[in-house]
Amino acid sequence: MAKFVPFIIKTDGSQNISVKIVRMKKSDAVQTEKEPVWQTSWLSDYIQDAAFEKYALKTSDGELVALAAYEILENDVMVHITYIESQPESNPTIVGHSKKYQGIGRVLIAYGIKLSIDHECGGTVTFEAKVPELAEHYVRDYGACPLPSFGGAPRYELSGEAAMNIFVTYLK
């Protein structure tokens, strides 16, 4: 049986880096308020909502690369990816194109797809695009389908073949 084996890419050498995705600990959330400060405090009441499952993406030596919050919506047969944030050194909003690692969003979307499969939601995930460039990226590179957004941030769904194309990248 295939196993989910996540990885990211080190920008300076295009080298795949094995990573682990584990439940976020309080110490991970605290790190978002230390220098270099992350865009978002993961200690905020919103992110600490008990409805969200929160995970940390770490290298094998324990470097915190990103955090992600997921909402399992079994009644709606999907997982909503509430929030994903990369460490400041890999966050394009902070450092532009000189990111330390690449592929962070993709692997955390794939993990959302895994959670969706594990919770019998068929691999369907939904999420919002924070900026127009991300919205274009989700459609062009991932095959995401726009959903009604009701005046908020643009919303997207990944399901079926598009979701599986992302997910199988990490199967070994």
Short description:
With 172 residues, this protein is of the alpha+beta class.
How would you sum up this structure, described in words?
The protein is an alpha+beta fold and 172 residues long. The protein has one domain: Aminopeptidase. It has five helices and nine strands; from the N terminus they run ββαβββαβαβαββα. The protein has helices at residues 26-31, 92-95, 104-118, 132-142, 160-167, and strands at residues 7-10, 15-23, 53-59, 64-73, 78-86, 101-102, 125-128, 145-147, 155-158. The protein has a nine-stranded mixed beta sheet. Helix 3 (104-118) packs across helix 5. The N and C termini lie close together (9 Å). The model has no long low-confidence stretch (mean pLDDT 93).
Which helices and strands occur, and which strands form pairs?
Elements (H helix, E strand, L loop, with lengths): L6 E4 L4 E9 L2 H6 L21 E7 L4 E10 L4 E9 L5 H4 L5 E2 L1 H15 L6 E4 L3 H11 L2 E3 L7 E4 L1 H8 L5
Parallel strand pairs: 5-7
Antiparallel strand pairs: 1-2, 1-6, 2-3, 3-4, 4-5, 7-9, 8-9
Helix pairs in contact: 3-5
Organism: Faecalibacterium prausnitzii
Protein name: N-acetyltransferase domain-containing protein
What brief labels describe this structure?
single chain, alpha+beta, 9-stranded mixed β-sheet, 9 strands, 172 residues
